[in-house]
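[09:14] KT: can someone run the structure on this one? pasting the chain below
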Amino acid sequence: MRMADTTDRAHDVSFNFIPRAYRPAKPRSIGLTEIRAPHYFAYGPRHMQDVFDVAGQWVDGIKWAGGSFSLMPQEQIKKINDIAHDNGAYVSSGGWIETVLRFGEDAVDKYLEEAKEVGFDTIEISTGFIAIPTSGLLRLVERVKEAGLKAKPELGIQIGSGGDSAESELAAEDKKDVGDLIERAKATLDAGADIVMIESEGITENVSEWNTSAAAEIINGVGLENVMFEASDPLVFEWYLKNYGNEVNLFVDHSQILQLEGMRQNIWGNKGSWGRIINPHFG
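[09:31] RB: done, structure tokens below
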């Protein structure tokens, strides 16, 4: 029996006689892959160019996590951001505005101004380390949009989440209500946020048992296309693909692009995902 050819011929790939699960060409609005810019692993423009030369058609955006850009010369930030733009990818900050907020309104405006100057398109508004009311979160979304940037609130169910906290530290903190996260996410989207990032802590990271019901409630409550999940662990992004298909939006480390895309297209996988990722395309 002849397999249906679901390869998008706009992709420049070798061995394209092998059918694969459908993936639209960039710019995509679903099935986004956002990768980590220099942070845990220090690298520069030459390495970033290599990444895009090899796998650029599968990278929708890059994210500068943890304020790493504040430790680098502007020239290097601009070069990396230019490479992303030249390859049809957006540039996002990660969590850092919560640091800037400690120094007042003027600091926020200067942060947004310089972010534009060095080539950022999106500002992530992380709430993992701060207690902020929904009204304050919406004002930040509005401020970011007024500055001509896209807003990406980052919400989670674990107090103290932020990427560098140990499991024991997080276990000592309370967890937030999933229903509250859903309502806050809807409110930010109504206020003009472009997508909502979901913190992995409390769901699939730094937990003794995955809280998969929380992920399901978020997807059902907010909409698959409106959220992006942190998934910098192959078993985690495999789980999302197995349960929600290859149109789920995921944030991974830059070293994991091809592994993730192989699963998205059903050309490789682990024991649990082998041959299971299907996305038919007609026409």
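[09:33] KT: thanks! The mean pLDDT is 91.
[09:34] RB: yep, looked fine to me
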